[in-house]
Each structure stands twice: as structure tokens, then as C-alpha cells.
Write a structure and sequence with these properties.
It is found in: Cytoplasm. Its main location: cytoplasm. InterPro entries: G_HFLX_dom, GTP-bd, GTP-bd_M, GTPase_HflX, GTPase_HflX_N, GTPase_HflX_N_sf, HflX_C, P-loop_NTPase. GTPase that associates with the 50S ribosomal subunit and may have a role during protein synthesis or ribosome biogenesis. Belongs to the TRAFAC class OBG-HflX-like GTPase superfamily. HflX GTPase family. By secondary structure, the protein is an alpha/beta fold. It folds into four domains: 2-101, 3-Layer(aba) Sandwich (Rossmann fold), CATH 3.40.50; 105-167; 184-364, 3-Layer(aba) Sandwich (Rossmann fold), CATH 3.40.50; 369-432, Ribosomal Protein S8, Chain: A, domain 1 (2-Layer Sandwich). It contains 14 helices and 13 strands. Strands 6-7-5-8-9-10 form a six-stranded mixed sheet, sandwiched between helices. A four-stranded parallel sheet has the order 2-1-3-4, sandwiched between helices. Helix 4 (93-104) packs antiparallel against helix 5 (108-134) and helix 13 packs antiparallel against helix 14 (412-432).
Length: 433
Amino acid sequence: MRAIIAKRVDSGVPDTSEIRDLAEAAGYTVVSEITQSRTADPALQLGEGKAEELADEVAAADATTVIFDNRLGPYQTYNLGQLLPEGAEVIDRFTLILEIFGQRARTRKAQLQVELAELRYELPRAEAKTSLAKRDEHPGFMGLGEYDESRERDIKDQISRIKDELEQIEQTEEHRRERRRDSGFDLVALAGYTNAGKSTLLRQLADDLTVEENEDLHPDLDATAESQDKLFTTLGTTTRRAAIEPRDVLVTDTVGFISDLPHWLVESFKSTLDSVYRADLVLLVVDVSEPIDEIHEKLVTSHDTLYERNEAPIVTVLNKIDRVDDEELAEKREALSALAPNPVAVSAHEGTNVDALLERIDRELPDWEEERLLLPMTDDTMSVVSWLHDNANVEDVTYGDEDVVVSFEARPAVVSQARSRASELRTAAAESA
């Protein structure tokens, strides 16, 4: 698929690097680009002369697709389609992102989120088709499609159905998270912009990449965490067990943030971010090799997104230090100190400073509590002792003739559950006496 990139900015020099990366991630071959610095034209996005130049370039380059790095309204898409050679299509940045999401969606949840985003994107276009049809125009091209009186109603019905199914999936995932917490697991989430290196870092932190020993405990965990230099490699969530003795820690990699996303697209994927919002600790991963202005802007946007609903502490991870020298790293640390106090600098690719990050995770997670329980000797006592060995750090077990004393440290939730199980044992012993 041969594509031409088009971008308009109000002022300055248009930067097309990200939209090129997105186009290549979707499988397009970028053969040319047309840019313009001016205010947006309501009818064509570009000025009329530049739009005609774009049409000529499409014909000359034998391109099949024009990809705008601007958000196009339905009428702009329609008008641009009038100018282009027959068979060429116009898509905008958000249609392109949806294409990529659709290609990468593997789980039912991810597929539903893509479908929901596509429907939310299509809804105003369905309304535009209605308007054009009433004016006796026939928008049967350029992504608008033939006019169908019932389509708008169908879209709204489908949106409602998908939201209900996603809600059911989220309830199941929330129950799973709570079971893991009750079993003594700390939950850590990786957040940050796409291509910051989150998936590579997950592989460094994880100690269960083959997952064999974890299959019985967590059959829902994926078998691999992809690490590729591609945008949106991770669309759903991938969870791994991390090696932080004596804790049991599960680390989840999530879909990456990307700049300038419309509200409808963020809303469609909000449930994916629930694993971030409901974590005990968030690792905000940043590509430290990027220009300082870009890093600053991404940190601001990330914090805005996270602080909306997140209550967990946030640790900024400056990744890809193998791509910068010590002087540049020190300068960026200083410049970002207000947004990223006391960050951890690592190279996920080379494994540099990963041990220091694991130690930081241990310090930032909720403190464990020490407990000493007196358990009556009953038929069920050994199952409780065994459960404590699985879910806590057991320091000592002393067996008497009529009772068992267990000294251990664990997450507050596990201590609370252990006390409850000890109380049940004592009640059962008293009733049988």
C-alpha cells in the first residue's frame, strides 16, 4: 500500500516523524509527503492550492492512500475525495490508529475495544451521510459510504451492546485482581507512551517468561511479552510474575499512550487502563533518548491521565540510557526533576540497573506487617499453615501438643485473611470440644 503523508500546522515546521512511524506500523509504504503551515481550511483542511498539489502528487506517485496527521471532519473527507484520483482514499490519524489497533487486537476485550472505537468514530459520519442525503448528494465514497437511514440507530445499539459486554469482562478482571491481592500478590503496572520500552522492561523484570511454573496458579497469564521496535506492540495487557524476594509481585504491561488522542478513542480503551488505576505501584516508563521538550510534554500528559483516577505511587523510569551519554542523562534528570523526582535510570535492552529498579519497587510497595498467630491443633490447621507458606514469608512454626504458633510477615490483606482463618479454626475447635 503506497501512501502519501499530509500534515497542516498553524505555525512552524510540521513534524511528520510520528505519523510516518504509525503508517509503517500499519503496513503502508510512505512514498511522499505534503505539508503546510497555515490556519485550517474548513472545507479541505489544507488550502485549496495545496489540496490540488496533493491530488497531483497522488497521481504522480501512484499512491493508494492519503494519510492526514490532522483530524478530518466528515465533510473535509468528502471534499478531499472529490479532488483525488479515482480509487485513492483519504484517512486521518485516528483512522490509521484504529487500523493498527485492529491488526494487533488478539483478546476478546481488545477486539471489543477496537470495535467500540470504530463505531464511535463512525457515528458522526453516519450523521453527515444523513445530512448529505437530505441535500440530495450521494456520499458513496471516501469512507463515508452509502446513505442508510437505519445505520445511525444501528451504531448506537451496537455501542450499547459492546459497552455492556466490556463491563462484564472488567468485572471478571477485577475479581481476578482481588483474588491475586488476597493471595498476597502486589500489583505493579507499567505505563507510558508507546515505544518507550515497556514490553522490553517487563521481560527484564519477569522471572516466569516460560510461565510453566505459573500455569496452575495463573492460567489467565499470556505466554509471552513481545518486545519489538514497533508502535502499539502491546494492545491488550500482559502480566508477568517478578522476582522480588520475599514478595510475590505481578507486573502488567499496558497499551501505550500516544499524543493527541480524541476523547472517544481514550474512552474506548479506558478499561485497559484499569490495570494501571488499580495497581499498588505504577512505573511510568520514559524514553530518555528523546528530545527534552518531547519528554516533558509526554510526562505532563501521562501525569494528567494517571492522576485522574490513580491513587498508587508513581516511579518514573528513564529507559534507554544506552542511547545517551552520562552528561546528557544528568542534564535531563535535572530538567525533569519537578515532574520526575528521584527517577530510576535503566536500559531495559541491556539490563543495566534493573536490579536497582527491583529494589526501588520493593521500597515503594506497601510495607509488610509482622504477625504471630496461635492456631488450635485441628484437622484443618495444617492447610492454614500451608497457605501461609504460599502467601507469606513464614519465619518460624512451633508445634505444641494442642496448638501451633506461626510467626510470619505478609501484605496487610494476607495478615487480615490469616487472622480470619485462625478465628474460624478457634471457633471450630471450641464447638467440637
